[in-house]
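Chapter review: from sequence to fold.
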Amino acid sequence: MEDQSFLETLCNLEIPVTVRFSPDQRRVLFSTQLTWGHKKGSHAVSTIWLATTNVQRSAQRIICGTFNDYAPAWNPNGNSIAFISDRAQVGRNWALYMLALHDEAQPVLLTPPDNQSPITAFAFSPDGHSIASITLDEKSTEEKWAADNNNEDARVWGKAWSYARL
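The token string follows.
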């Protein structure tokens, strides 16, 4: 029994994946994921934390870890962050969210919540008023229908290229 408890504890360890210092270098933002791709339930989850540099035990969870919230980035003004999440439809859709770092703010949706292709990268403009993102093209209605109804699991390399768009 002790071995099983140890293994469960080990699988539930959250490890830092993305670490970003604030523009003024006084705070650090980091996301964590479970070790070895372990999942809670049937989908991956991650957590976003905020800590003050040079202050021990100051880390606070600012995003709960119920969804796959990852790749946090600072707005150049240092008052908000953006991150990628599947919170609109867990494990299936991806969107970009903004979170103001003040009392009990909630994440605000920035992109359409029905993207089935993950957002591969994003960056703030230098003034913090715009965000550029890269994502793969979404499948057409016909492609989605064919995939759902033909039960084809095989993917032929080079047959249907999905291009990333800015």
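Two observations follow directly from the output. The chain has one domain: 2-138. The chain has two helices and eleven strands.
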